[in-house]
Design brief:
Elements lengths: L11 E7 L5 H9 L17 E7 L3 E7 L7 H13 L6 E7 L6 H12 L4 E6 L13 E3 L8 H11 L19 E5 L13 H12 L3 E5 L4 H8 L5 E4 L4 H7 L5 E4 H9 L2 H7 L11 E5 L11 H14 L4 E5 L13 E4 L7 H13 L4 E3 H8 L3 H4 L4 H4 L3
Parallel strand pairs: 1-3, 1-4, 4-5, 5-6, 7-8, 7-9, 9-10, 11-12, 11-13, 13-14
Antiparallel strand pairs: 2-3
Length: 398
């Protein structure tokens, strides 16, 4: 992904749901004006969720998710239906495509109930208007024809009106600095670093600092101390990768604010408060307890991977006893969390805010504390209070 690309996690997610052959893929093609989805008269052409990215003005970059039919049958079909419902966890606006000739079915009504229970904004695209003489009014409904294009513009307007307001969204780092401020970014380049590029949180922080007219200096951890001495001006903030938290804290003078990319991401995704509350559970971990370490992306594991190697090692050293670990990555997140004493989750840069809040809600409902990589690493290194100094309201929780 280039620096000029909007990451999936930052796009508005529009989920397209409906029965097989209701015309979901045709509606997507009509909305986008492109043949992005395979269209067929055969039921069940879409067997797995498929993502398409586009610009939808004035919303900007969006990700449209085409899902399998919610009326699929058989053992495999029921798994596909389950996958469709899982997409709701990351959906900002849902579009239910209904067949105008048959009206709402029990499956359609069940999905609408789920949408209302979740307080998820939705629009019903009542398809096949060109084949239907009697058009009954429907709550949140827009009559459309994927074949003729009738009603597609009205459908787009309805989606735009249903979309959540993003104007008051928290900045990643821009609200912590003023124009002209210096910010030092500590980026370790080791075996786990991606070849030829920066990881997404680092890219996002750099962009946000540019938008705030701040000045960023990016360096590796072994040159932090000398660079601070050479700058000739005190930085407003030092932001580090969590893996080198300990050395960066040691090399950063106490009068300079310091935090991590992961903590910034937790605040940005809206789960920093719960991550701070949950980290105390680490004190109570004992031999035989099971810990879930979860990441929002999938990547090739290196020999000293942070999630599968470093965090387990740090936790075992902290607890002083053997602890059991299980791991999840990507969209895979266990439904039953009760076997775990605690969850340690990554910053979630590849997951949208909706998905992160859903995971937090699942953990809270099941009584399992879920903390964050950056919060956890700062805690076991005894520097959590310092890493929260840029956020007085959160620091007051300790």
């Amino acid at each position: 992904m280039g620096l000029n690309d909007t990451p999936s996690s930052e796009r508005l997610h529009i989920g397209i749901f409906g029965r097989r052959n209701a015309g979901k893929s045709s509606i997507i093609n009509a909305i986008t004006g492109q043949n992005l989805s395979i269209v067929s008269d055969v039921k069940g052409t879409t067997t797995d969720p498929v993502k398409k990215t586009m610009e939808m003005l004035p919303l900007g970059p969006v990700e449209i998710i085409d899902t399998p039919g919610i009326d699929d049958e058989g053992e495999l079909g029921s798994k596909r239906v389950e996958k469709s419902y899982e997409i709701l966890n990351r959906t900002d606006v849902a579009v239910l495509v209904a067949d105008g000739q048959t009206g709402l079915t029990e499956q359609d009504k069940a999905l609408i109930k789920e949408l209302k229970d979740r307080k998820l904004p939705y629009v019903i695209a009542v398809n096949k208007a060109d084949l239907t003489e009697k058009r009954e009014a429907m709550e949140n409904g827009v009559w459309v024809s994927a074949k003729t294009g009738e009603g597609i513009d009205e459908l787009k307007k309805s989606i735009i009106l249903a979309a959540p307001n993003e104007e008051n969204k928290t900045k990643l780092v821009g609200d912590l600095v003023s124009p002209g401020d210096f910010v030092v970014l500590v980026v370790p380049i080791d075996k786990a670093a991606p070849k030829g590029r920066l990881i997404l949180p680092q890219q996002m922080v750099i962009r946000d600092l540019l938008d705030a007219d701040a000045i960023s200096v990016t360096l590796k951890e072994d040159s932090l101390k000398s660079t601070l001495n050479r700058l000739g001006i005190k930085p407003k903030l030092v932001i580090t990768d969590s893996q080198v938290f300990e050395s960066v804290a040691r090399d950063t003078p106490d009068d300079i604010l310091m935090t991590s990319f992961s903590i910034l991401m937790a605040r940005y995704k809206g789960n920093l408060k719960s991550a701070i509350e949950a980290v105390n559970a680490v004190r109570n971990i004992k031999k035989g307890d099971k810990i879930l370490i979860s990441e929002g992306c999938t990547h090739h594991r290196q020999c000293d991977d942070i999630g599968t190697v470093k965090i387990p090692r740090w936790l075992k050293n902290f607890v002083g006893e053997d602890v059991e670990f299980e791991f999840s990555s990507g969209i895979g997140f266990p439904k039953d969390l009760t076997p775990y004493k605690a969850i340690i989750h990554c910053g979630g840069c590849m997951l949208n805010e909706k998905e992160m809040k859903y995971r937090e809600l699942c953990a809270r409902r099941q009584g399992v504390p879920m903390t964050n990589y950056g919060v956890f690493i700062a805690f076991i290194n005894g520097i959590l209070q310092r890493s929260l100094e840029p956020f007085p309201d959160y620091r007051a929780m300790l």
